[in-house]
């Protein structure tokens, strides 16, 4: 079996594919001022191109594909690309997932499941209507909650819920989210606020740390660390000591970096490979594919790019410069 390796010996098994830069939300930690001019359509990878390069990635040992964005469900008919990608299960793909803000799920969760999607991660930053609106820019908490219920009904299991915890906004809800995980039997993922907002307003003092998140939950619902090999997992995972349903994961890239175990690369909607969330350079797979390169030449290009993957991020270094593209462009 092939495997992509970087110069530090890390095996790359996980590819995140952004389907679009566009989004119908305005999360203040991501895209507060709306989308900058969107890449023209001809610069975006077509579904045929995405299928072609994903097939190559799978042949090189990628086992997990996650569709993201922007809001991936804003791209027309994503069921089509899911149906194409699911065929790669025959070649070693193990997991096909989607990260979404949940807005379109009430009507479309069933269609995603029948197209072959394995599971969804849904973002939900607050259980309070006013805070949800303040954090996402849209007043649609009820719709997202209905989306979570629809995903569950459709059998898109297990459901993960992402909450970015930002001091002064939603840290008082951490334990309530744990209660939500128990009640709805979902896997909560708490994420530290990273310097990936398009407004470049990130401030270290706004980061509510993984340790603080743990303490808030553990006070109300004692936690037991899950005895799973962390491997390339980005989250530290816990179950509830009393045996209740649900799971907690804490993702702390700022205060407890996990770069040594990173197995990810990303493909932006306009076809650029990014070897780290915080990369300051991108590598145009689109240009290589469109130049008429052979499959072997494309493989060589991918291998050489992966080899250059950064050792770690530099958020905690004095001279840190945030990438110019926000999370919505990079594909979270
Ligand atoms: N629109 C979809 C969504 O919101 O789920 C998918 C794309 S979004 C960029 C993917 C994930 O990145 C979301 O869970 C979001 O909360 C997270 N995210 C965005 N900006 C972030 C930041 N500055 N720090 C930490 N997480 C962030
Ligand atoms: Fe849109 Fe997701 Fe970014 Fe929020 S986090 S603005 S929903 S891309």
Topology overview:
Blueprint: E1 4-5, E2 11-12, E3 14-18, H1 47-59, E4 64-68, H2 78-85, E5 95-100, H3 105-115, E6 119-123, H4 129-136, H5 141-154, E7 160-165, H6 174-184, E8 187-192, H7 210-220, E9 223-225, E10 236-240, E11 247-251, E12 264-267, E13 272-274, E14 283-284, H8 285-290, H9 295-307, H10 327-330
Helix pairs in contact: 1-2, 3-5, 6-7
Bound molecules: S-adenosylmethionine (SAM) and iron/sulfur cluster.
Provide a descriptive summary of the structure in words.
The chain is of the alpha/beta class and 332 residues long. The chain has one domain (4-330): Aldolase class I (TIM Barrel, Alpha-Beta Barrel), CATH 3.20.20. 30% of the residues lie in helices and 18% in strands. The chain is built from ten helices and 14 strands. It has helices spanning 47-59, 78-85, 105-115, 129-136, 141-154, 174-184, 210-220, 285-290, 295-307, 327-330, and strands at 4-5, 11-12, 14-18, 64-68, 95-100, 119-123, 160-165, 187-192, 223-225, 236-240, 247-251, 264-267, 272-274, 283-284. It has a twelve-stranded mixed β-sheet with strand order 9-10-11-8-7-6-5-4-3-12-13-14. The chain has a two-stranded antiparallel sheet with strand order 1-2. Helix 3 (105-115) runs parallel beside helix 5. The longest helix is centred in the middle third of the chain and has 14 residues, at 141-154. Bound molecules: S-adenosylmethionine and iron/sulfur cluster. The site of S-adenosylmethionine has 20 residues, from strand 5, strand 7 and helix 10.
């Amino acid at each position: 079996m092939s495997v992509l390796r970087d110069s530090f010996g890390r095996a790359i098994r996980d590819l995140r594919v952004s389907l679009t830069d566009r989004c119908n939300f305005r999360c203040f930690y991501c895209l507060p001022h709306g989308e900058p001019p969107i890449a023209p359509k001809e610069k975006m990878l077509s579904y045929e191109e995405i299928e072609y390069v994903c097939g190559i990635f799978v042949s090189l040992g990628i086992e997990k594909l996650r569709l993201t964005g922007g809001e991936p469900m804003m791209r027309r008919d994503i069921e089509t690309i899911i149906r194409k990608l699911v065929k790669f299960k025959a070649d070693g793909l193990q997991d096909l997932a989607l990260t979404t803000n949940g807005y379109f799920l009430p009507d479309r969760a069933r269609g995603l499941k029948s197209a072959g999607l394995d599971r969804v991660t849904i973002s939900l930053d607050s259980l309070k209507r006013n805070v949800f609106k303040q954090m996402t820019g849209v007043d649609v908490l009820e719709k997202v909650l209905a989306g979570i219920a629809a995903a569950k009904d459709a059998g898109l299991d297990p459901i993960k819920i992402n909450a970015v915890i930002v001091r002064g906004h939603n840290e008082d809800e951490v334990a309530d989210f744990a209660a939500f995980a128990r009640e709805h039997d979902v896997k909560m993922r708490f994420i530290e606020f990273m310097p990936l907002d398009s407004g470049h307003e990130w401030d270290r003092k706004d980061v509510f740390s993984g340790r603080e998140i743990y303490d808030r939950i553990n006070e109300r619902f004692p936690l037991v660390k899950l005895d799973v090999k962390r491997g390339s997992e980005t989250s530290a995972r816990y179950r509830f000591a009393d045996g209740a349903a649900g799971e907690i994961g804490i993702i702390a890239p700022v205060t407890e970096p996990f770069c040594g175990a990173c197995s990810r690369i990303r493909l932006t909607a306009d076809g650029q490979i990014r070897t780290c969330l915080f990369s300051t350079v991108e590598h145009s797979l689109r240009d290589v594919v469109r130049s008429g390169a052979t499959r072997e030449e494309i493989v060589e290009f991918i291998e050489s790019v992966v080899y250059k993957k950064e050792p770690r991020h530099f958020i905690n270094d004095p001279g840190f410069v945030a990438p110019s593209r926000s999370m919505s462009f990079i594909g979270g």
